[in-house]
Amino acid sequence: LLLLRAGGERLGWGFQLQSPEFLFALSVFLFLFGLSMLGVFEFGTSLTSADAGARKSGVGSSLLSGATATVVATPCTAPFMGSALGFALAQPAWVSMAVFTSLGLGMAFPYLLLSIFPRWLAYMPKPGAWMDALKQGMGFLLLGTVVWLLWTLGAQGGPNAISVALLALLVTGVAAWIYGRWGALERKRRTRAAASAIAGALLIVALVFGFGAVGTFTRAVSTTNAADGIRWEPFSPERLAELRQAGEPVFIDFTAQWCLSCQVNEQTALADADVVEAFERKGIVALKADWTKRDETIARALEGYGRNSVPLYVLYDVHAEKPDFLPEILTAGVVLDAIEGIAPKTASD
Question: Tens digit of pLDDT for each residue in 114-142?
Fold first, then answer.
């Protein structure tokens, strides 16, 4: 991220989920991971017979698990990390690296404690058949993550992108099934080789087809004006300046389809009937800055507020020079309290 920003790219935290190709690649990866945990195929069993290979596999597995957790978790900055990330990305590189290293150490801290105090493992559950059930349950959670990724992909590319991704995942599933059915260790070497070759070919076809197609479908993320909800206008610096010049109260919602916190806030706090009524009564103009896809205008606006991530909620009073910032996790009460001090616009205004 630092290298890309040094090269002139205006990127914020979670920027990778603005790429349809990245969403597709992550979907395939987690789909295969989920199928493996469900027992469709076993990955890496050929290394268990060699002690050195097993140790290597264990280190690689730990690194892969940590990298996967980090990649999937990066857009989930609310409610505590948004300010820290915005601060880190505005600092020199060594400060940013120090902050991100601290975050990584925090994620690894439970494992570190068990390494320092191995006796604590005695309080961990004993191995048994429950581990297979837990593994399979985690497999379903991974497939649920794939559903979320496809939903995010659909917000960028529409139903055609989802259809392409689902077809590619179907071919990927067939490849995994062939590998698991005929590539197991008990099969003859020739059978295993053929199964691996066919499965690998199908996986390559799925990836090439998916990468070549999902990026071609684009759909402008339109701003909706629900009859029973807040009336949103698309955000632009020009529109904001015009409203500020006219002395209008303004509320800006920096959001994205891939931001789960944003979606929860919009479906609960910002959809509350009392909040909608208060917006209308106070004459607040609501601007939505949708960062689902890469948008340098929104990226610059976030930087102007000292942030590099969503959600961000900005409220301008009628004549206030500086805006107020609402928390990243909203409730109807929080929003109502924030706009309570805004005087309703009169005809003289």
Answer: 889 999 988 888 888 888 888 889 889 88
